[in-house]
Amino acid sequence: MYAAGIDVGSTQTKAVVLDEGGRIVGRGIRMTGADVVRSSEEVLAQACASAEIPVEAVEYVIGTGYGRFRVTAGDDQVTEIGCHARGAVHLFPHTRTILDIGGQDTKAIRVNEKGEVLDFCMNDKCAAGTGRFLAAAAEVMGLGVEEIGPVSLESTERLKITNVCTVFVESEILNQLSRGRRREDILAGVHRSIAGRSASLLRRVGMEPELTFTGGVARNPGMVAAVEERLGLAVNVSEDSQYMGALGAAIFAVERARAGASRQEASR
Ligand code: ADP
Questions:
Q1: pLDDT single digits (tens) 85-131
Q2: Distance 131 CA to ligand 1 centre (A)
Q3: Which residues pair with 211 in a beta bridge?
Q4: Is 11 within 8 Å of 31 (Cβ atoms)?
Q5: Ligand 1 shell residues, CB under 6 Å
Q6: 258 alpha carbon – ligand 1 mean position (Å)
């Protein structure tokens, strides 16, 4: 028996396929783009291909993320907050708080030991403090989003980025560059600025350790370092951080598939 979770995020769509024992056997990822239905179908096909199973072998699919109601293969939907919580506690059982930084929003989520959501807080009104802010900084510097974190770790001089607005930060960066400031130091300042905004969200939700950092931005080592420095503690980060919502959805899907199978068994 196989089950899948599909997380249709504002920026990227992710899928995870689990086997009956809850092991990850396949993953798929692509930019969400304008055609949400197609993206969700493609990542499921990709995840099944990497698991070397036909799509028909997947018994139960749960959709999550902002586009979850457009997941045509979905048997049900669960919010991304519930899915990140479930996925994070599955991989790091001592997780009590989650910081999820995605393409266009940031969330702080407090959970219990079962991965149930106790409280959450999110910043989705503007791109400040999200992956979009980092992407804007990367663009001005002519770097890819995966390059800016490692570059920021080379910083030797502390420099403060004052603009929190994604639009204005571009001119602040250009201004700093024209004054001869090094890109390493500017980028470290950009990362610290996002870490500061994340810390405020975490305070609002009443952060308790352990903290697990999820979402695509957790793949950025500069961001992980900035968050750890700001909070003064080590955070959990998985290789699958960007798949955390899809993983949580897939875990719910396995449970529902199992519950359906035992109901059928009982009625026989
Ligand atoms: P959403 O669910 O909102 O679409 P994700 O959690 O998938 O967002 O994260 C997307 C963000 O992650 C984008 O802003 C992207 O720039 C960033 N990202 C993805 N891969 C990497 C990487 N390898 N290094 C740094 N940032 C990354």
A1: 999 999 999 999 999 999 999 999 999 999 999 999 998 777 778 99
A2: 6
A3: 97
A4: yes
A5: 9-12, 65, 102-104, 131, 135, 145-146, 149, 215-217, 219-220, 242
A6: 32
CB 153 within 8 A of CB 182: no
Rg of the chain over all Cα atoms, to the nearest angstrom:
19
Domain 95-237, CATH class in plain words: alpha beta
Given this chain, do its domains 1-92+240-268 and 95-237 carry the same CATH topology? Answer: yes
Q: Name the residue with the closest Cα to ligand 1, atom 19.
A: 216
pLDDT of amino acid 168: 85
Q: Are strands 97-101 and 76-77 parallel, antiparallel or unpaired?
A: unpaired
Q: Are 2 and 25 in contact (CB under 8 A)?
A: yes
Shortest-distance atom of ligand 1 to CA 14 = 7
The 10s digit of each residue's pLDDT in 213-255 is: 999 999 999 999 999 999 999 999 999 999 999 999 999 999 9
Starting at the edge strand that comes first in sequence, how are the strands of the sheet with 106-111 ordered?
A: 117-123, 106-111, 97-101, 211-214
CATH of domain 1-92+240-268: 3.30.420.40
Asked if the bond preceding 210 is cis, omega within 30° of 0, the reply is yes
- Which ranges of the chain would DSSP assign to H, the alpha helix? 36-51, 80-91, 131-141, 145-152, 166-178, 183-205, 221-231, 244-267
Q: How far is the CA of 172 from the centre of ligand 1 (A)?
A: 23
The span from the CA of 64 to the CA of 55, in Å, is 18
Domains of the chain, by residue range, sit at 1-92+240-268, 95-237
Global model pTM greater than 0.85: yes
